[in-house]
Structure formats: structure tokens, C-alpha cells
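Batch manifest, entry 17 of 40.
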Amino acid sequence: MRAVLKSLNLEPDPATVPSDPAEFSLLARMIVDPPDAPGEESFDITVCSAEWLARACREVGGIYNARHHLVVNFDDFDARVL
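Output type: C-alpha cells
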């Protein structure tokens, strides 16, 4: 099946995220639907930097379940590419 992206919502707005890579984390909600059928689905992922993920791992004792996370290079993050 081929899906079409109907909308992408980033929370918080990437322009308001601190400039420290260790703090870079946001929620991306994608609404997609099949191009030739009714209905839609919502998918949520956490977009974060490797530095944020490493810090989160340290804070919980060394093991962090990174399911539904997308790790991006902080300096090159571009919401249009997402």
C-alpha cells in the first residue's frame, strides 16, 4: 500500500527548541491516508538528537527503549526533509 502524508505537526515548534543538541527533542505527528481509499491514520514519533538520546539513556540507568524515535543530526535538522 502507498500512503500520502496529509499533515505533519511538530510540537514544540522547532524554532523554539533550545540550541543545545542535548535538549533537542520534539514530537512529530503525521497524518497519512491511502490515496485511493477513505480513512486516515495518525503516527507519532519522537525526533531527537543523538546527544538527547544519550542523556536520556544515562538518566534511566543505561538502558533506554528508543522505539518510535528518529535520531537526527541537530545541526542539519530540516523539518521539510522529515
